[in-house]
Amino acid sequence: MGNCHNDRDRGIERRRPRMAGKGHRELTRQSETKNGRTAIIEAAESLFAEYGLHGASFRQISEAANQKNASAIQYHFGSRDQLVEAVFENRMRYVNPKRLALLEEVQATGGTGEARALVSTWVWPLAEELRPREEGNHYVQFMARATREKQLVIQLAPADLMTGWFLAADRLKQLMTHLPEQVIRTRLLAASDQCVNCLAAFEAEQAGASPDFELQVETLIDMITAGLMAPMSAATEQAVKRRRKA
């Protein structure tokens, strides 16, 4: 029986997120020079991205942030949900103003190509988060994890930091009047997921440092725009009719 318990305990240890990786050692060293709150946010971003919103314990986050006081997270944030919100806010406070600035440019020009320009306001400000940083790049992977485990990122992140996304979405809806409302809604949700998940994959591959990065991002914008604006297929038209009859 003792051996069985030992085997089970070892199995639990194997499944438990560990802090032994080089990236986490680097994160800990960098955290020594940062204030506690910032260090915790950056450690949480990295660990949430790797292990999920509930896969990393407060103890592990505190260790990665070089916080000797185990209650530091509760002191700074109060709860896991508030820590998750702080991770969003830490990056989105820069992303959202960039989106709003790009939207002003789009609104000033308008005309041909407006749909692609609007999609670009979604994608490029977030893609800029993939540029190499001293603490590493984990934010978009964190967003992708949050989307899979909870719900849409636009519902998880603080609403006042998603205004650029909403304004672009509202304008895109006006350009999609050739489609039924159900199709518009589905396409916008799919486009949001495509944006986050593709950029998360790029981030995991450290694409922000690649000479092909601009090409990858512009191609992603092309794909999202085409998916949003394409006419309905005959199969989708039939599905809409069946849904209306149901």
> On the 0-100 scale, what is the average pLDDT?
85
Judged by helices, strands and strand pairing, the structural class is: mainly alpha
Instruction: From the alpha carbons, calculate the radius of gyration and give it in angstroms.
Output: 21 Å
The rounded distance between the terminal residues' Cα atoms is: 58 Å
Shape designation: globular
Number of strands: 0
Order of helices and strands: HHHHHHHHHHHHH
The percentage helix is over 70%
User: Would you identify the regions where 5 or more consecutive residues have pLDDT less than 50?
Assistant: 1-33
The number of distinct structural domains comes to 2
GO molecular function: DNA-binding transcription factor activity; transcription cis-regulatory region binding
InterPro entries: Homeodomain-like_sf (IPR009057), HTH-type_TetR-like_transc_reg (IPR050109), HTH_TetR (IPR001647)
Keywords: DNA-binding
Pfam families: TetR_N (PF00440)
Provide keyphrases for this structure.
246 residues, mainly alpha, 2 domains, 13 helices, 72% helix, 0% strand, globular, disordered N terminus, DNA-binding, HTH-type_TetR-like_transc_reg, Homeodomain-like_sf, DNA-binding transcription factor activity
List the helices and strands and how they pair.
Blueprint lengths: L1 H14 L6 H10 L4 H16 L6 H7 L7 H5 L3 H30 L4 H14 L11 H11 L3 H4 L6 H12 L6 H24 L8 H17 L4 H12 L1
Helix pairs in contact: 2-3, 3-4, 3-6, 3-8, 6-7, 6-10, 7-10, 7-12, 8-11, 11-12
GO molecular function: DNA-binding transcription factor activity; transcription cis-regulatory region binding
InterPro entries: Homeodomain-like_sf (IPR009057), HTH-type_TetR-like_transc_reg (IPR050109), HTH_TetR (IPR001647)
Pfam families: TetR_N (PF00440)
